[in-house]
Amino acid sequence: MWLSGCGKSAPTLYATLTLKSDGSHFYGTVVRRESKSITITGAAGDTRTFLYDELADIKYGAQDSGVAPAGQTPGSSAQPSGQASTVPVSGETVIIPTGTEVPVRTRGFLDSCCGPIGGLSLGTTDFDVKVGGKVVIPEGASLTMERADNKPVDGQISLTFELRSADFQNHHYVFESSESGAPAGLLVTFKGAKSGTPEAKLRGINVHLESQTFMGFKATAPVTLKRSE
């Protein structure tokens, strides 16, 4: 849900998040809270979305409440300055052409053995994504990806992810197909070892992705990047 009021601005809400993976913290202003995730903007201006499932604890408090030192963002990385998006206002869109790559680093361990189709995971852009020479998604943006497919193909496990949304510069963006009824089209697929091979005997047939694994999502069709309300 959006943190807004009717006719009266809601007080600014601050939070310190503790991650399950390594016990690190992220402190900042709460931008949005939804059913499965929370989005925080740190003091350095970096906006990140966290799934509740990856958090060990959330502490809310005013900036001077002692929840975390003011102006300090433990565990965060600053977004490069001067990187302007070409999606400036709500409702405007940018078309990401076929073949465009969105470089993402995973945040957390992913495995084909675990997790349902449709399950969400998080990642961070590894560097700027440009269209026509202009930055449309800056380095350090928080990306939400969906587990789109997980099935055996020719004796190998094929695990596919699809990008669903992005958070940066205090705004939330969604990826949509430019064609009615078609999937969004920013996909990446990983394949496990082929069954019966020495590699499969050594490490199993499942796809194992460690945290900070590089994922080169690619647009299989034109994709619309749209700022949500």
What's the structural blueprint in terms of helices and strands?
Blueprint: E1 14-19, E2 25-33, E3 37-41, E4 47-51, E5 55-61, E6 93-96, E7 101-106, E8 110-111, E9 120-125, E10 129-131, E11 134-137, E12 142-153, E13 156-168, E14 171-177, E15 186-191, H1 198-203, E16 208-209, E17 214-219, E18 223-227
Antiparallel strand pairs: 1-2, 1-5, 2-3, 3-4, 6-18, 7-9, 7-17, 8-16, 9-12, 10-11, 12-13, 13-14, 13-15, 14-18, 15-17
- Quickly count the domains: 2
- Strand % is over 45%
Please provide the ordered H/E string of secondary-structure elements: EEEEEEEEEEEEEEEHEEE
From the spread of the alpha carbons, the general shape counts as: globular
Which CATH class of the largest domain is shown?
A: Mainly Beta
List the uncertain runs. Answer: 1-8, 63-83
Can you describe what's shown?
This protein has about 230 residues and is mainly β. It folds into 2 domains: about 1-80, SH3 type barrels; about 95-225, Beta Barrel (Lipocalin). The chain contains 1 helix and 18 strands. It has one helix spanning about 200-205, and strands at about 15-20, 25-35, 35-40, 45-50, 55-60, 95, 100-105, 110, 120-125, 130, 135, 140-155, 155-170, 170-175, 185-190, 210, 215-220, 225. The strands form 4 sheets. The chain has a 6-stranded antiparallel β-barrel. Strands 4-3-2-1-5 form a 5-stranded antiparallel beta sheet, with no helix packed on it. It is globular, with a radius of gyration of 19 Å. Mean pLDDT is about 80; it is low at about 1-10 and about 65-85.
